[in-house]
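TA notes, week 10

Several of you asked for a full example with nothing omitted. So below is the full record: structure tokens for the whole chain, then the designed sequence directly under it. When grading your own attempts, check the secondary structure regions first.
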């Protein structure tokens, strides 16, 4: 296979051909480069997949998007799905599936993420269920930042229950912010990845961005806001009902959680997430996105770890 734009070949091949080596190792093929032409050898099915992957990587670069090992791994995984062509080579007449923020453009890295991103743009309340590393919270924060930047919402509210994951942290020094910030750090991390740090701090000071434990939501109506609840499996049924009924005019609400990682006493029986999904799935305006270990977009070993634990029922 050959490529028209030779200026894209260096980022396509990677430093010391690292990207080609990654495709070779994952698909069991041999790739040799001669000028602007690549020769691929191996089993017929593997060669076909390698061609699809390399073309998708080239198209991604042509659209001005960066390549990293995670993006390559995701595209390799997606070539095994029957909907791969629909995700990567989307209908030219349809709007592309992407989320633009100040620091990056996020595109789907799995079939489930593509479906999830459509729900985030369409539905009022979205439950995102699945294991760590599938991008549930990260993509939701990116969508929230995008809507805040464009003025679609006036506030961004991020929350999660302050529940210790199996350990006892004891007394934490400092004021209220110091005490709860350790629980909310993953939300800060996602924000800083989508916006320059100085903008995050300025918007937090102005109240445009609020990061707080779920207990702080009681008694409020959250209008003109994009509201995200993370680690929702650790809410009680009462907390979940309280949170969902905060929904206000011109708002969007995303509830993220992993039903297999419940840290509250009573486990699944007491979790507000499972209870809410059971009651609300199918209600107009409410969507449910489900992710599996196959949708993990962190390092490939994370997917294998999730598979190992889920396979044993642990």
């Amino acid at each position: 296979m050959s490529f028209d734009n030779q200026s894209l070949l260096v980022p396509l091949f990677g430093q010391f051909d690292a990207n080609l080596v990654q495709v070779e190792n994952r698909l069991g093929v041999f790739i040799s480069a001669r000028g602007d032409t690549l020769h691929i050898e191996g089993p017929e099915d593997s060669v076909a997949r390698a061609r699809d992957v390399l073309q998708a990587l080239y198209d991604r670069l042509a659209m001005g998007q960066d390549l990293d090992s995670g993006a390559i791994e995701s595209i390799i995984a997606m070539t095994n799905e029957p909907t791969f062509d629909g995700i990567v080579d989307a209908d030219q007449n349809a709007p592309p599936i992407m989320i633009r923020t100040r620091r990056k453009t996020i595109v789907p890295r799995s079939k489930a993420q593509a479906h999830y991103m459509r729900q985030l743009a369409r539905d009022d309340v979205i439950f995102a269920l699945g294991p760590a590393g599938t991008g549930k919270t990260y993509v939701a924060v990116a969508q929230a930042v995008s809507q805040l930047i464009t003025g679609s919402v006036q506030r961004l509210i991020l929350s999660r229950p302050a529940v210790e994951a199996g350990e006892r942290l004891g007394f934490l020094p400092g004021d209220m912010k110091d005490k709860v910030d350790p629980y909310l750090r993953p939300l800060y991390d996602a924000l800083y990845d989508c916006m320059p740090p100085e903008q995050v701090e300025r918007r937090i000071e102005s109240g445009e961005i609020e990061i707080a434990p779920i207990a702080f939501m009681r008694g409020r109506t959250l209008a003109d806001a994009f509201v995200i609840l993370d680690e929702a499996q650790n809410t009680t049924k009462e907390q979940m009902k309280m949170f969902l009924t905060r929904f206000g005019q011109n708002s969007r609400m995303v509830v993220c959680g992993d039903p297999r990682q419940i840290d509250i006493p009573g486990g699944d029986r007491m979790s507000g997430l499972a209870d809410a999904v059971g009651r609300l799935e199918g209600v107009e305006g409410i969507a449910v996105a489900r992710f599996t270990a196959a949708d993990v977009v962190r390092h490939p070993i994370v997917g294998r770890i999730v598979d190992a634990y889920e396979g044993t029922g642990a």
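The two ends are 45 Å apart (CA to CA). Use that as a sanity check on your answer.
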